[in-house]
Amino acid sequence: MHTNCEACGLKYQREPGYFFGSIYFNYGMTALLVTATYLPLFFLWEVPAHVLLPITMTFCVLFPLWFFRYARSLWMAWDYLADPPLAPPRRGERGSKKLHQNNVVS
Q1: What is the number of alpha carbons within 13 Å of residue 70 lying toward its C-beta?
Q2: pLDDT, tens digit (0-9, with 9 covering 90-100), for 17-27
Q3: Residue spans per domain, the chain
Q4: How far apart are CA 103 and CA 82, in angstroms?
Q5: For residues 72 and 19, is the Cβ–Cβ distance under 8 A?
Q6: DSSP of 75-97, one letter per residue?
Q7: 59 with 34: CB under 8 angstroms?
Q8: Which run of H or E residues covers position 101?
Q9: Which positions ≥6 away from 79 have C-beta within 8 Å?
Q10: Residue range 41-82, pLDDT digits in tens
């Protein structure tokens, strides 16, 4: 994974262990999809548990591996929405100490 955005120079990893939060998105999406699939198949269509369990267990292993990078993207979006980083100075303000945080010039 790149350390900074090629277009704007934004640093992706704010601190060591930053992406541990993406585990919540990965686990949550996996649990949501398994529950939303397993319960209707088991109770409404009466698919036997010995058929559903191997399928859902395989899904629980493979889906998080595939969803890994999307979970990181969701974590970054959530984090930057909740706590935006300081914006870099605009062109022509190189020596200025103006920093923009939460759309307020300080």
Answers
A1: 10
A2: 999 999 999 99
A3: 18-105
A4: 13
A5: yes
A6: HHHHHHHHSPPPBPPPTT-TT--
A7: yes
A8: strand 100-101
A9: 14, 21
A10: 999 999 999 999 999 999 999 999 999 999 999 999 999 899
